[in-house]
Amino acid sequence: MNTGIPLKITETVLRDGHQSLAATRMRTSDMLPVLEQLDEIGYFSIEAWGGATFDSCLRFLNEDPWERLRTIKKYLKKTPIQMLLRGQNVLGYNHYADDVVSEFVKRAVDNGVGVIRIFDALNDVRNLEASMRAAKESGAHVQGAFVYTISPYHNNDSFLKVAKDLVSLGSDSICIKDMAGLLAPYKAYELVKTLKAEINIPIHLHTHYTSGMASMTYLKAVEAGVDIIDTALSPFAMASSQPATEAMIAALEGTERDSGLSKEKLFPIADHFRTIKKQLTETFNLNTNIEIDTKVLSFQIPGGMLSNLLNQMKEQGMADKFPDLIEEMPKVRAELGYPPLVTPTSQIVGSMSAFNVMLGRYKVVPREIKDLARGKYGRTPAPIDPEFLKTLIGDDEIITHRPADDIKPQMPALRQELAEKGYPNASTEDVLSYAVFPEVALKFFESNR
Amino acid sequence: MNTGIPLKITETVLRDGHQSLAATRMRTSDMLPVLEQLDEIGYFSIEAWGGATFDSCLRFLNEDPWERLRTIKKYLKKTPIQMLLRGQNVLGYNHYADDVVSEFVKRAVDNGVGVIRIFDALNDVRNLEASMRAAKESGAHVQGAFVYTISPYHNNDSFLKVAKDLVSLGSDSICIKDMAGLLAPYKAYELVKTLKAEINIPIHLHTHYTSGMASMTYLKAVEAGVDIIDTALSPFAMASSQPATEAMIAALEGTERDSGLSKEKLFPIADHFRTIKKQLTETFNLNTNIEIDTKVLSFQIPGGMLSNLLNQMKEQGMADKFPDLIEEMPKVRAELGYPPLVTPTSQIVGSMSAFNVMLGRYKVVPREIKDLARGKYGRTPAPIDPEFLKTLIGDDEIITHRPADDIKPQMPALRQELAEKGYPNASTEDVLSYAVFPEVALKFFESNR
Ligand SMILES: [Co+2]
Ligand SMILES: [Co+2]
C-alpha cells in the first residue's frame, strides 16, 4: 500500500465478462435497463465494445455493432466506453492495411469509444503503430497493452522495455494483459513495482480467474501501486472471467487503496445481470459449468485444449504418446521463439507438437507455423535459430520489416466490392464491418440494409 | 511473509468441499480410487468426517458413517483424518449429555480420526469443555475453533480472549472459522497478527469463497504468519466452498511460505473428482450453478435467505416492507446479543425480523428466540438488556450455568431404547448414531443390521 491513491476500476460485464462466461451472447437489450445505473457508479471506464463482441453482434445476434456502440453511448454520459483492439488485426486474426485500421479506430471513437486498449499477440509494437496513431488523432484515451507470458525471454525488464516503447508511441496508460491467468500474485507485485518505478502514466492490470489466482494477483498489484484493475459484476465474474467487482471493492474498503465505490449500489445491477445470465444460458444453450483450470499453470495450455489433443491422439491409437506431447510443447514453443500462448498461437503450437509426436519432428509443417516463423505476424519474442528456420520454411521469404508495410490500402477496393454486391451507398461503418468479417457482414446486410 | 516456515494445508475435498458444492452427497466409493494418492501429497490433514457427512451417510447414501471412517483410515496411512464437531451439539443442533459427547469423540478417534476441530456457534467455550477433554484423553490433535463474525462486540481482542480460553482447555492448535466468508483480507492480516503475537500453538484459518474474497484473505493471513489453511481440490473449490488447493499452492511457489506441495501430483486427483462431481450432479440432480454472494458482506445474511424472506413477504402481500426487514435484522441481532449469524442463528434472526416487520415488534416470539435469549444455547456474545429479556421470555428460567449441566447422562437410556426396538447388541457406534439422528439411524438399521 505505498500509494494513498484510490484504486480505479474498469467494469467488464458488458464485454469480457460475457465473452468469457456466456459465449459473447449478451444483447444490447440485456444491457439497456441498467446502463444509467452503471454510469453512476464511478468506474474509470466500462468495457463494452471490441474483442469478440463485434463478430458476435453480426453473426449470432443480428445486431449492428456500430448501432450498439451508439446506443450505449447515449446512456453512459459520464463513464468512458472502453474497447479492446488487436492492433493491426483490428478484431480478427489477420493483419489489415493501415487505412482499414486507421479508419476503424476513428469510426469507433466517433461513435462513442473513449478508451482504446490496443495489443499485439507477439508484443511486436510495430503492429500497434497505425492503430495507436489513429487513436491519438481521434482524441481517445490510448491504452497500450502488452501480453503477459512466461518464458526465459520474458521478465520484468523485457516487459518494461515493451512498456516504454508503448509510452513512446503515445500511450496514455499501460495495460498488463494477462489473458491466460498466468500472472502469480508476487510476480504481479514485482512487475507492477518495476513498471511504476520508471513509467509515469497509469498502469492498468487485466487478468482472468482461469488458474484461480486472479483476485490474489490484483491484491498484490494494488499493494505495488497499480492504478486500475478490470473486474466484472459477480454474475459474470470468476472462472474464466475477471474477479468480482463487489468482492474487490469490499476487500479494499477502509484501506489506503479503497476504491470509494459503493458495492451496495451494485447489488441491484448484479441482480439484473444474474437474471440475464440465466436467460442467455437458456436461450443459447450455453455451458454454465465453467471451472477454473489449474493445469494452465504448468502447461500454459488450457486444460480443455489438452483434452482435445489427447482425444485426437486416442483416435489415432497413439494415446500412449500423450506424455511425449506434454514434453514436446515447451520444446516447440522454444524453437518458435517463445510466442505468448494465446489464441491462436496456443492452438498452432499445440497441433505442431501433436504432429511432431505422431509423425516425427517437423515432418509436416502447417502454413501457420511457417508464417509465424518467418515473421509474417511480426517479430517473435526470441530469435529463431537460422538453420532450424531454414528447415522449416525452405525458400519462403523472411519478413523483418513491419508486416503491414506489405499490405496496400484496402478501403477503396472494399467500397468497390460492396457496391458491386449491391450496397453502393454503404456507410464507412458498414465497409469496416465488411472488411473484418466479410461473409458475416454480407449476411447481416441482406436482412438489415 | 514474516516467517520462513512452509505453509501447511488441510484438504477439504472429502468433507466441506462436497458439503458446500454437492449437498454432501460424495460416497465412500467416490473417494476410494484416490485415497492413496491423496495420502502421498503431504497435507497437514485431510478433512473427511463430521459436519454434515454423518447425517448424509445415513440419510441419503445408505452408508454407515463409522464404516466410512474405518475405510478411509485404511488408505490414509500417513495423513491424519480431520473431523468437524459442533462441541456439545456433536453433529446436530441440540445439546447432548456429556456422556454422549465424550463417547462420540472417543469412538471417532478410535475409528480413525486424528485431528478434531471443535467449535460452538456462540463461541461459548463451556460448550467445548466436554468434547475437548474427551479428545485430549483419546490422544487426538485437538483444534479449538472460534467462529468469526462482525459486530461491535467482536474484535481482535475479543477473539484473542476466546483463543486463549481454548488454549487453556488444551487446544493443540486454534482455528479461525469463517463459515460465512466475512473475513476481509486486511482484517485477516490483523487478526492473525494479533493471535500469533500471544499464542504459541499453530493458527489454522478456515474460510469460504461465499463473498468472493477467500483467496485474498488466505494470502494476507499467510503473510501474517498463519500456519495452516483449508483448501479444496479445484472441482470442489470456490463458490460456497474453499479456495482451490492447486491455486493456493501455485500462488505461493517460490515465496518464503511455499507449501512445498506439488500441484502437478494433484492434477490426476482433481481429474478424478471432476468426474465424480459430474456423476453426483446427475445422480442426485444437484444445482451446480452456485455463484458467489456478495450481499452477505453487507447483510451478513446469505442472499438466498434474503430472497426466501422476500418471497414470504410477497405471499403476505407485504413486499413493500422488505426494506424495513433489511433494517430490522441488524437491530434484532443487536438486541439478541450479537450472535454470529450461522446456521441456525441466521434463520432464527431472519424469521424474528420478518415477524417484527409484519406483525409488530416481538408480538410473536418463537421458542428458539426465547431459548437463545435465556441462555439455553450458552452465553450470547453481548449481554441482553434485562428489561427487554423480561418482555421476551416472561417467567422462563434464565440459564447462566453451562447448559449441558442440566442434561443427565443419556447413553444407558439410549442403549435401552435401542434394545427395545430390537437391537439389544447394538455397538457403541450404533448407539451414538441413534443418539444424534434417531429416526434416520433406525431406518438405516432396518435395512442394514
Ligand atoms: Co480478457
Ligand atoms: Co466450512
Described by the principal axes of the CA atoms, the overall outline of chain A is globular
Question: How many β-strands of chain A, per DSSP?
Answer: 8
**Largest sheet, spatial ordering of strands of chain A:** 1-2-3-4-5-6-7-8
Helix and strand composition category of chain A: alpha/beta
Bound molecules: cobalt (II) ion
How many helices of chain A? The count is 20
Strand content of chain A: 5-15%
Helix share, percent of chain A: 40-55%
The major sheet of chain A is characterized as:
8 strands, parallel, barrel
How many domains of chain A? The number is: 3
Q: What would CATH call the homologous superfamily of the largest domain in chain A?
A: Aldolase class I
Provide the succession of SSEs of chain A. EHHEHHEHEHEHEHEHEHHHHHHHHHHH
What is the CATH C level class of the largest domain in chain A, in words? Alpha Beta
Label the CATH architecture of the largest domain in chain A. Alpha-Beta Barrel
CATH fold annotation of the largest domain in chain A: TIM Barrel
Please report the distance between the alpha carbons of the first and last residues of chain A. 54 Å
Mean pLDDT of chain A: 95
Rounded radius of gyration of chain A (Å):
22 Å
Greatest contact between two chains: A-B, 39 and 38 residues
Spans where pLDDT lies below 50 across 5 or more residues of chain A: none
What is the oligomer described by this structure?
homodimer
